[in-house]
Amino acid sequence: MVYTDPYSPDRSYYECRDCGHRETAESLESCPECDGVVRNIAVARE
Ligand SMILES: [Zn+2]
Predict the structure, then answer these.
(1) What does the alpha-carbon distance between residue 46 and residue 37 come to, in Å, rounded to a whole number?
(2) Domain map of the chain by residue range?
(3) Is 38 in contact with 25 (CB distance < 8 Å)?
(4) Single pTM value for the model
(5) Which fold has domain 1-46?
(6) Where is the DUF7129 domain (predicted)?
(7) Residue-level pLDDT, tens digit, the chain, 46 residues
């Protein structure tokens, strides 16, 4: 139960390359949905 505020600037944004699932977390090694590879798509514009 670690659903955090998706707008928190301290979190990174990850997208699964396999199923497209998106997750906001401090760090994510694999997709919680399909265990696929995720990539960091965080857009932290200053
Ligand atoms: Zn996935």
Answers:
(1) 27
(2) 1-46
(3) no
(4) 0.66
(5) Rubrerythrin, domain 2 (2.20.28)
(6) 3-46
(7) 666 665 556 678 999 999 999 999 888 999 999 999 999 987 656 5
| Distance in angstroms (rounded) separating the CA atoms of residues 31 and 17 | 9
For ligand 1, the distance from its centroid to the CA atom of residue 21, given in whole angstroms, is 5
What are the tokens at 45?
């514009």
Work out the end-to-end distance of the chain between its first and last CA atoms, rounded to an integer number of angstroms.
30
- Using CA atoms of 13, 22, 5, 42 in order, give the dihedral in degrees to the nearest 10: 10
CA distances from 34 to 3, 7, 21, 44 (A): 18, 24, 9, 26
